[in-house]
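Let's sit down with a protein and look at its sequence and fold side by side. We need material for that, and I hope you will provide a protein of your own picking. Once you have written the record down, we can walk along the chain together.

***
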Amino acid sequence: MEAFGGDVRSGRVTAPGGRPFTDVLWIGIGGSGLGPLLMLRALRQQGVGLPFHFLDNVDPDGMARTLAALEERLTTTLVVVVSKSGGTPEPHLGMVQARARLLAAGGTWSGQAVAVTMAGSRLDQEAEAAGWLRRFDMFDWVGGRTSITSAVGLLPAALIGADLRSFLEGAAAMDRLTRVADLRANPAALLAASWHVAGDGQGRRDMVVLPYRDRLEVFSRYLQQLVMESLGKRLDRQGQVVHQGLAVYGNKGSTDQHAYVQQLRDGLDNFFVTFIEVLEDPQEISALEGESPADFLEGFLQGTRAALTEQARQSLTITLRRFDARALGALIALFERAVGLYGELINVNAYHQPGVEAGKKAAAGILSLQSRLENLLADGVPRNLAAIQAELDPGTVEPLFWTLRHLCANARGYVAEGDWGRPESLSFRHA
């Protein structure tokens, strides 16, 4: 891999001690986790590249299982920490846990850690000061949900030996096509217009994504963030309340024919389907006993389309001649541009996320309240909810009750006496 001055997989870039890297631990959330996951699921070839493990949440159980799976190989694990601002709590917490476990196993953090972040960010400064193995820059104008064509997506592609140049060529080719002024010849404009018509310009129909390839199983999850975070907005550009959005869900065909297609055909008409088909079939699986899995997959796609059409359910189909890195790049670029154009149609800013920021601020407020609560109960004096509320003034009693419930459920020394079914009867103290 050129960015490392060699090929990680060949051993020319090695872990401390000269041993080749055996695994990658990827730490990132949102687009910083979904983009790499899509690249891996879509482009990995069997037996090529390093195995990947993800810390994409702050669930302690998930963290424990991921780190335990790497326990014997932590000293030869390449750790990639992705955070554009360098201050997002989830990747920071994942980094702290991974670093502690790696150092306890005898690893060398500075020789195994890589940062993908904005130049000059807190993470970038920390990585530079500590002499991390590598730092990759993220541009300040690139949001996480559109970062897959940056180092966020290209680094994992390189680590699994994928054809990242073809991926970028496909995205660039689609970028050129979607800048065409003739809207009838612009695939992104046509796609955005179809969304607008299907949902009456108000997002009244959900987008159901049905790719008929296992390699695109993660694509609907990727689109959930790209579409919903970009278009789910309370205010338009003039500050008027509009409550816009476009909900996305899906999995893959033909699996979904045994899941929720029944409702799509006979239930509420509150959706439109986006089928994604690939014409060329892999040659590794041939017809046996007169039956071809590829033919059945195509038959299921056409059958589902026909069954939905019979009930006047709306759908559109995106057809790829073949599925490869170039096709993936083009597909992602198509949806990115369509989201931007749809944002213009409904007059919202598709490139900010105030709702996400509101959730982060609220979470910070809860953590601050918990700190104040722990300080208050440190004296061991029993207090009921009313007394605690009077002293801490959180606004409502609900966050106090939820936080105390969590503290008491774990071995942190907090005790509740009374009936949990009647919260007003409870008395809390630190033993």
Observations:
- The chain has a mean pLDDT of 93.
